[in-house]
Amino acid sequence: MDKNCILVTGGAGFIGSHFVDYSLSLGKRVVVLDALTYAGHMENLEQAARSPLYEFVKGDIRDLELVSGLLKKNLPSAVFNFAAETHVDRSIDGPAEFIGTNITGTFSLLRASLAYRDGLDASGRESFRYVQVSTDEVFGSLGSTGKFSELSPIEPNAPYSASKASADHLVRAWFHTYGLPVVVTHCSNNYGPRQYPEKLIPYMITRALSGMSLPVYGSGMNVRDWIHVEDHCRGIWLAAGRGRPGERYCFGGNEEWHNIDLVKLMCSELDRLRPRQDGRRYEQVIEFVKDRLGHDLRYAIDDARAVRELGYEHKHGFKDALPATVKWYVENQQWCSKVMKKSAKG
């Protein structure tokens, strides 16, 4: 086994590509497997592609033969599974793809990882890790108080979160039944550069810069906890290196915002960076639209365990990181247009 090599599935996506960049900065040899669906783009890996330690393979995690071959060829010390269909609205309109990628894909990846692990020597079997990157949405919805933690019950409310919860259960079963050394991570909403423009922050920014209205679901009072993608990636590495096999770890940003307040904050930044030509403020084009089906009220993460056991810490807060994120999208409108056009083509 090559202790310096890792396999990252879904590495051309938003969080996955940042994790690839971070892993390369640590001197790791990174093999990326990605099917390049609507949210996976080679543009996200342009920085990684400049490294001699990076390799990209186009393929689906459901392809057992392909995954098994990559494991045997590269002998990674860990598999990090970021590959997933993620957008709630898409899961409501077309749940089949979510079942296929998130559940069947995880099943295939677990089968290949177990066979690979079993073929290693004693030292390799002990040190190998399979890391499943999950979400706080598997816990359902919170009321006005309390936070999700590793002890929260699994109560998914949408096809997306149900498919992710199902995958988490499979991962747990492969640990308890077969002894595969797994770690599951749960995070709150991520933000940062290169996020696919259907997600709230880039969606609002790209619409605003295109002169369009800013649609907010319901009353806009749904609450999300936001974590910068770089903080999340550091947390995942900590979980892989310091976490106990069979356990799960939660990572949050301690940044709870009502959706409407977050949109207004972005509007203020846009007013400063790129004022509208008609003299109106961006906040004036906010419109409230029919609420999403089964819209969870509030998510928040208690990451005390990760702080205590893994040494996790937040390095990015909204005060500095959100303006920097808005600025990135303002300065990279061509990136947004390019990935949206490619997605529209198929």
CATH class: Alpha Beta
Distance between the termini: 38 Å
Write the CATH homologous superfamily: NAD(P)-binding Rossmann-like Domain
Could you report the average pLDDT, rounded to the nearest whole number?
Answer: 94
Structural class: alpha/beta
Poorly predicted residue ranges: none
Strand content: 15-25%
Rounded to an integer in angstroms, the radius of gyration calculated over CA atoms is 20 Å
What shape does the CA trace take? globular
Query: Biggest sheet, strands in spatial order?
Result: 3-2-1-4-5-6-10
Give the count of structural domains. 1
CATH architecture: 3-Layer(aba) Sandwich
How many helices in DSSP terms? 12
Described by its quaternary structure, the protein is single chain
Please provide the ordered H/E string of secondary-structure elements.
EHEEHEHHHEHEEHEEHEEHEHHH
Give keywords.
alpha/beta, 17% strand, 346 residues, globular, 3-stranded mixed β-sheet, 7-stranded parallel β-sheet, Rossmann fold
How would you describe the overall organization of this protein?
By secondary structure, this protein is of the alpha/beta class. The protein has a single domain (2-195, 227-255, 297-317), classed as NAD(P)-binding Rossmann-like Domain (Rossmann fold, 3-Layer(aba) Sandwich). Helices cover 43% and strands 17% of the residues. The protein is built from twelve helices and twelve strands. The strands form three sheets. Strands 3-2-1-4-5-6-10 form a seven-stranded parallel beta sheet, with helices on both faces. The chain has a three-stranded mixed beta sheet with strand order 7-9-11. Strand 1 (2-9), helix 1 (14-25) and strand 2 (29-34) form a beta-alpha-beta unit. Helix 4 (96-118) packs parallel to helix 6 (159-178). It is globular, with a radius of gyration of 20 Å.
